[in-house]
Write a structure and sequence with these properties.
Belongs to the cytidine and deoxycytidylate deaminase family. By secondary structure, the protein is an alpha/beta fold. The protein contains 6 helices and 5 strands; from the N terminus they run ααββαβαβαβα. The protein starts with 9 loop residues before the first helix and ends in a 13-residue tail after the last helix.
């Protein structure tokens, strides 16, 4: 059985050259696009806006080795539990009246809500460095890297224990340093940039 190498086909080569010239004449690709890490951290932060926690909104985004998002999550009460029937405070002398006994962290929700059977080798993007309980879940899930935005609880024992666990498990953790300080989702501006109704013959059939 013979195979045809398109690279040696003069006709294909001519078409490629024509497409290249057309691309140059039509303009260059824009350069102010989001880099991958910025995109994934932005998704994690956007997910945090779903949280009903009045004090702390945290989001997480799990990305596989092909740079595909396989899970997102945010801190909130367990599925099926009425948010209004459980406490959201954190200063009661009785632990039963504090949120910590009930809230599921963003990392837990992301791992449990994954849309892939296997997330081993994935990277998790989180707004806040994981606590020790979430570190256990990250390790057990086979996640290989943690990228975090804030480490404001670095002095807490739960964070110290978390880093100890991650170190022992050989899981890399890295602080996210944004190149863009703000990523704004402006629906009006996005709509204004969309193509007009005259989108060419391919779309005339729609």
């Amino acid at each position: 059985m013979s195979s045809v190498n398109n690279n040696n086909n003069p006709e294909t080569t001519d078409i490629s050259k024509d497409l290249w010239k057309l691309a140059l004449s039509a303009g260059r690709p824009r350069e102010n696009y989001l880099e991958w890490d910025e995109y994934f951290m932005a998704v994690a932060c956007l997910s945090s806006m779903r949280s009903k926690d009045p004090a702390s909104q945290v989001g997480a985004c799990i990305v596989n080795q092909e740079r595909l998002i396989v899970a997102t999550g945010y801190n909130g009460m367990p599925v099926g539990c009425n948010d209004g029937e459980l406490p959201w405070g954190k200063n009661s002398a009785d632990e039963l009246y504090n949120k910590y006994m009930y809230v599921c962290h963003a990392e837990m929700n992301a791992i449990l809500n994954k849309n892939s059977a296997d997330i081993r080798g994935s990277t998790i993007f989180v707004a806040l460095f994981p606590c020790n309980e979430c570190a256990k879940l990250i390790i057990q899930a086979g996640i290989s890297k943690v990228i975090y935005l804030s480490d404001k609880h670095r002095e807490k024992k739960s964070t110290i224990a978390s880093k100890c666990l991650l170190d022992l498990a050989g899981i890399e953790y890295q602080r996210f340093i944004p190149k863009q300080r703000q990523i704004v989702v402006d629906f009006d501006a996005i709509e204004a940039r969309l193509p007009s109704t005259d989108r060419g013959p391919m779309h005339d059939r729609e």
